[in-house]
């Protein structure tokens, strides 16, 4: 059979592609997978192999580009294998380079190849590029793969309405869903909080026979819990024929988020009784939610016996548990003995000392450790400086947050600054921070901090302005009316006190705390 001199058989390219294309081997041998390996070990193992993978990915794509430039026809299997590897290793930029090499007609008629490219774009957050590939596919109704990838991409980006619209189009076009379709769609339902659509998807899963699939059922539990129906979430959980660790973690998280702490602890006990070894996710979840120090110590005991004590997420949670109960020595001991720390660790220990000078010291240590602060770090730091009354330091760090770290101030940061000025009686400066420096409308936390400062320091004029804003933002909050009444009382403006009391009565609010 005649062969074009420019055609390169697959076997000629395979040796060049082997390091990248055998992504299953790379993932299994280079990425630390054991569930209970220490975070420190995982961190160092990953770093050790990262340069090798980067070089391999780039080298293979370089070879493909050189081959195409020389007029070589590359087999579709090579493109598919390289795209698969780019997806597995999250080498999205390399995947885009590969896309430029694929002939348009080949991509349009080969559903497997276009599906892999679509999935890569969706996973990288480039939903518009993914949808463009999707629209050009000639046989996209052949399987649910392409639909699932695009739905997942939209859901991960928080574009839940687009994800659901695609699901409805999928139904309308008669494309059969698979076990991967429903979890992605249910995530979108949870994202918009629509239990009505979630129930419809649940019925669809029943009709198509996926209602006994653990993967699908876990997503149903999650959807019902996030949409506010924790009772239905538990019903789905109890009817599961078999459960995995994700099942328990999902139900546990649902209880914690709904404030059902007794039920969460009971479920945790049952999880242990059923022979499940909880992972760091389950333990961190339960630690974060329990209000009782006794329960916290009990869970800490389980953690110690299971050998999880120094897992990063659990150690971070333990710092919070002990600091919430005023046991700062215990929090410091855990922090000091951690083999590695991330920004969450530093935030936890800074927040634990938010009313003490130690917080500033910990922040300085954080900078020396080359750990980049985030927005939460500065909320804790500014809150500390407000408690200590260090105005100049607060102004300096507020400016540095944006100038050095590129962190734009949020509502919480502005509330901290208003509180900082207010505590020192600098009411005019606090008010100017709101009306002159904020780049968005101030919320209740900001105006509330200003109103409280006006009450403490007896500033009637600005107090009235802050109160009026709060009456608009929180019309049913009795606390704001009470503070203004007290401001009037301190100023001896008894007629205004009586007017405010009448306003409270008209709005059906209680007067007991006045």
Structural write-up:
The protein has 514 residues and is mostly helical. Among the domains are: 1-102; 409-514, Serine Threonine Protein Phosphatase 5, Tetratricopeptide repeat (Alpha Horseshoe), CATH 1.25.40. The chain is 73% helix and 0% strand. It contains 30 helices and no strands. It has helices spanning 10-21, 23-30, 39-69, 76-88, 92-101, 104-109, 111-123, 127-136, 145-156, 160-172, 181-192, 195-207, 214-226, 230-239, 245-257, 261-273, 280-289, 293-306, 312-324, 328-336, 343-352, 358-368, 375-388, 391-403, 411-423, 427-437, 444-457, 460-473, 478-491, 494-506. Helix 12 (195-207) runs antiparallel to helix 13 and helix 21 packs parallel to helix 23 (375-388). The longest helix has 31 residues, at 39-69.
Structural descriptors:
single chain, 514 residues, mainly alpha, Serine Threonine Protein Phosphatase 5, Tetratricopeptide repeat, 30 helices, 73% helix, 0% strand, globular, disordered N terminus
């Amino acid at each position: 059979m005649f062969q074009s001199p420019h055609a390169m058989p697959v076997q000629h390219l395979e040796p060049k592609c082997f390091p990248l294309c055998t992504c299953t081997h790379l993932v299994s041998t280079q990425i630390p997978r054991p569930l209970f390996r220490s975070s420190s070990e995982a961190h160092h193992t990953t770093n050790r192999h990262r340069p090798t993978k980067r070089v391999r990915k780039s080298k293979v794509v370089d070879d493909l580009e050189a081959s195409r430039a020389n007029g070589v026809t590359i087999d579709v299997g090579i493109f598919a294998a390289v795209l698969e590897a780019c997806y597995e290793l999250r080498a999205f930029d390399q995947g885009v380079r590969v896309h430029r090499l694929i002939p348009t007609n080949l991509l349009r008629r080969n559903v497997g190849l276009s599906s892999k490219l679509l999935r890569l774009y969706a996973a990288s957050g480039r939903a518009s590029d993914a949808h463009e590939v999707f629209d050009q596919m000639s046989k996209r109704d052949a399987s649910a793969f392409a639909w699932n990838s695009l739905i997942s991409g939209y859901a991960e980006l928080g574009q839940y309405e687009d994800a659901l619209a695609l699901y409805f189009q999928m139904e309308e076009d008669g494309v059969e869903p698979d076990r991967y379709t429903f979890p992605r769609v249910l995530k979108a339902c949870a994202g918009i909080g629509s239990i009505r659509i979630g129930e419809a998807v649940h019925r669809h899963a029943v009709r198509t026979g996926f209602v006994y699939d653990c993967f699908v059922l876990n997503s149903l539990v999650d959807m019902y819990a996030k949409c506010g129906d924790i009772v239905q979430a538990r019903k789905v959980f109890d009817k599961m024929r078999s459960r995995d660790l994700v099942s328990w973690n999902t139900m546990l998280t649902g209880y914690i988020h709904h404030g059902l702490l007794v039920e969460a602890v009971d479920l945790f006990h049952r999880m242990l009784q059923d022979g499940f070894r909880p992972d760091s996710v389950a333990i961190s979840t339960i630690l974060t939610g329990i209000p009782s120090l006794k329960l916290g110590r009990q869970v800490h005991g389980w953690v110690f016996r299971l050998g999880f004590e120094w897992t990063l997420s659990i150690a971070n949670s333990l710092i919070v548990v002990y600091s919430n109960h005023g046991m700062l020595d215990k929090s410091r001991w855990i922090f000091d003995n951690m083999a590695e720390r991330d920004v969450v660790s530093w935030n936890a220990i800074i927040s634990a000392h938010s009313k003490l000078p130690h917080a500033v010291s910990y922040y300085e240590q954080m900078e020396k450790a080359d750990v980049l602060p985030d927005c939460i770090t500065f909320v804790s730091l500014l809150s500390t400086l407000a408690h200590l009354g260090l105005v100049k330091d607060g102004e300096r760090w507020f400016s540095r947050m944006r100038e050095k770290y590129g962190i734009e101030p949020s509502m919480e940061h502005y509330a901290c600054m208003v509180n900082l000025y207010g505590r020192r009686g600098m009411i005019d400066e606090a008010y100017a921070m709101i009306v002159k420096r904020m780049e968005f409308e101030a919320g209740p936390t900001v105006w509330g901090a200003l109103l409280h400062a006006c009450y403490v320091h007896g500033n009637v004029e600005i107090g009235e302005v802050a109160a009026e804003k709060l009456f608009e933002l929180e019309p049913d909050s009795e606390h704001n009316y009470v503070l203004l009444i007290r401001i009037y009382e301190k100023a001896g403006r008894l007629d205004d006190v009586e007017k405010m009391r009448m306003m409270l009565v008209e709005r059906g609010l209680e007067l007991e705390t006045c």
